[in-house]
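[job 0412] stage=fold_complex status=start
inputs:
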Amino acid sequence: MNPLIPLFVAIPLSGAFIDMILGRFIKGFSRYFTPVIILALASMSIYSAATAGTNPSVYYVGGWEPVKGIPVGICMVMDGFSVLMLCIINIVGFLSAFYSISYIKRFTSDNFYYALFCLMTAGMNGVVLSGDLFNIFVFLEISVISAYALVAFGVEKNELEASFKYQVLGSLASFFILAGIALIYWKTKTLNIADIRETLKPGYDRPFYIFVELLILSGFGIKAAIIPFHAWLPDAHSSAPSPISAMLSGVLIKAAGIYLIIRLFFNLFEINESVAVLITTLGALSMVIGVFLAIGQWDIKRLLAYHSISQMGYVVLSVGMGMILISRGVRHEIAMLAIAGGLYHLVNHAAFKGLLFLNAGAIEYTLGTRDLKEMGGLGKSMPATSATSFIASMSISGIPPFNGFFSKIIIIIAAVMARFYFLAFLAILVSIITLASFLKFQRYAFYNREDAKVEKGIKEVPFPMVFSMVIMSLLCIILSLLAFPGIRDAILTPATDILTDPAKYKDLVIGI
Amino acid sequence: MKEIATIILLPVAAGLLLLIIPEKFRIVKSVVALAISLITAYLSVVIFFDRLEPGTLGELSKGSALNFLGISLAADAGRYAILHSDHLSRLIILLSGTISLLIIIYSFIYVREMRTRNFYSWFLITTGCSAGAVFSDNLLLFIIFWGILGMTLYKLIPGNDEDSSAAAKKTLILIGASDSIMLAGIAIIWKITGSLNISEISLATDNPLTVTAFAALAIGSFTKAGAFPFHTWVPDYTQCAPASSSALLPASLDKLLGIYFLARLTSGMFIPGRWITFILLLAGAITIITAVMMALLQHNYKRLLGFHAVSQVGYMILGFALGSPLGLAAGLFHMANNAIYKTGLFLSAGSVEMRTGKNNIDDLGGLSRSMPITFICSLIFAMSISGVPPFNGFASKWMIYQGIIDFGTGPYFTNKLWIFWLGIAVLGSALTLASFIKFAGGIFLGRVRSEAEKITEVPLLMWVPAVILALACMLTGVFATGYVVPVFFMPASGTFHLPGFWNSSLVSLLVLVSILLGALIYLLTGIRRFRTEDSFTGGEKNQDETGYPAPEFYKTISEFRFFSWMYRKAENRLFDIYDLSKQSVLNISHMFSSAHTGVLPGYVIWACAGLTIMLLIMMI
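[job 0412] stage=fold_complex status=done
writing structure:
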């Protein structure tokens, strides 16, 4: 058993309170304390990834082990998939927090900022570690409520409006989810995911089962901003302070939305073909409409936000294809390939979209504008921002040798292999339009004019911001290695295994 | 064995290293780049003449750092990292290695003047990756190298004004889009054959799936090489990029690679059917004609060269489409010749631009006195590209004509159309000559302008590469049938006999003899003693200020009724696949955006409606 599991929640949760209390007395305390604790979490998550992938473990809170195959207490599960998410959350979290050291100086009351940041991290870590629906819901609310507050952190008209929209749609989502959970509890008298899987069978009452599935799907669909549940995202992600945008786009929509959709539809519900087709359709819709919405934008952060919708579409599409194949019971290895491609893209998206938001933040920090038409010629005066954003743009557009290329090629190959030619075509089309819109970003931000240094006194952003961006861009390159068969087996395969084999998950949680 | 790994990895590693060195140490960077290019050029010669074969990754990595972390990367990666070297790939490497060496020598001074950032890094990465693309046998490995080349192309434009940044964007969008489409082709091939090794694949194009795969991959090679209708980035790129970048990628390496891959497609991986042959021939013919027609009207000489860079590709496609060893050899020969003279032309254009600072033929004239070496070289390149014997362009075009005539003996209607294909090819060649008279005449001949008198010849390091290329044009032309074709091209295409009697050395001798005879007659007889007068118009003597810029003579073409309509449409970019698709994408984007009103109740309704619709679909 991995003794670190409860610490992933406990450390940031207590960090939030320490930030508030000590930060009041020691000036600048929370600014340095928060990155340190999240760095600790990040290293713990990497350590866990090295061990938990092949050897997943469960932590029973309070030592309440299951009795005769019936779970009686709260359990926290660390398997291949959740450890992958933990790595994303804490590494992106650390880099954003470190970036904030310089970025957030311009705002007042940074104690609140860091306390909320810690709470959000704690919530997300809790979501991915929880093994039962109720705790998932509680941690989910912790993370999204802190996100509402963080979106409004600028307390101006736009920020407040965006936060309000986010709250309204977010509470609608919570309502759907809670209703779904209540219905499940009513039928099964249990909240443990593995246990529900045992007791709730679709043959029992099919319309009820589908109704619950759809409630859960639309609830988490809103959190994950899948079209048509996406409308809050562009406002919220573009109004938040940039490191928070990086967290929201890079991590929160995954931990609170995509992760749960994948986890619940593989490990809680039995996969049936019609729902799988529905999920694939939603993914394809998000992918296509998201990118068309993005290419027309001139506000950098809105452009990036719409791309998050589109890229999450890739993930959902790919996982959905895997679900269709599994439900048909054919070509198991191609289903595994599709799911692995989706998860791989999920990880990659965290790296490049986080980086892109940090870049946007750097530009906003120096120029004070987010409008692409007012930029230009930053290439020479901000070399680090320019180089890292080039890497991120190439990654998201799927240009080799960066990570986005490898995940996209896996998705496309899986689609062709599974004879979903139309989906492969859409994936390629979207990839091309993504490239076009990121070249637009590159052109108007960094080229298009003579060097901007002379006229405006523009210089590169401070060290903490540069450091975070450079590390992220290195991640974009290093993550390409996940495509290699040997490394893929060590990291992605455990995650797909636990998803596609519910019996394994059950054995892990409930034991024998 | 190690040589092939070195020629790929060494330039890439050096290029990455140079990225870190700040721009202040430009001299260090250029010396390193020159040294690396010398090594790769030497290796390319060795690889070609010693016919070296690559080893497998397992052999190469024995006991090296690839086996770390307890994960045997080499064993797994060995399934994908498969290299292969045959005569075709060695030929491409020989050309790209030597040409990039010449360009780097030229760039020594040129880049200092032009201030392109990180030129040497991207240059080295380009050469390394193109070697990688040529030697990789696995399609996934190939597409990785191929994709990186699109990125370096983007990085080799400075992009510090609106035009050049727009050209850079357009270039990478078109190249990146074609690369993405190629992924579909690769996926389909993998699905059908279960193999990704170029040397093992041989598919008949008889069902929709294989035709799609062929089309997807051919789009990749067409875009890279710059063939209709995916060529539109080439003129924009060459107009805005520094001449050394244009010479490196659109003029030589992209052509070599695109055509290399097309050769692989048509004569290895696929067996083209009748319709594919027809479409390829048609694409080739349209490429030749449209590009050269556009070139006739250009005022900017770098843009003019860009259109010719497109037009020449049409000949290579014609050659490959014929499907005979003669056609293949002719296409490859033309590819090699094109790389030589087009690089030379861009280098000369760069020299002119550096010395005069002007891009427009209208503003230039009479440079032959002040830049004699550049003038002679440009003249040779211009005659080569226009297909004047005895230069190399003639030799390869002649082979293509012979191939087309030979093709005419076949049974199908595509074969019956041979006279049409031949006519287009000859017409294209004539129009090329016409537009190069404008290039050479407009820039170097004509009245000497007052500002031209201060202009001097470019430094030694800039004219030496051009002279070497000009010599290469002559030598490959003169010894085409005797030495060049049998040694360099026949092994790659298979043996064939040239129909009809033609010996390039004999023809050259005859040309030389006739020139000598002409000179003799000129000197000995009284032709020299004719009356000379100053030029005049309607009895009035021309003033010194009056000038007739060469491009004006070509305006007549654009005033024909049909042509004027076509040209107007072309100027509005109605034939540009990039602008067409951009417009439609933006329209769709606008349609979706207008639905996002920002009204919160509407958004809530969307979410609820989404749930309801899903329920309705699933419950019924």
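[job 0412] summary: The longest strand of chain A covers residues 57-60.
[job 0412] exit 0
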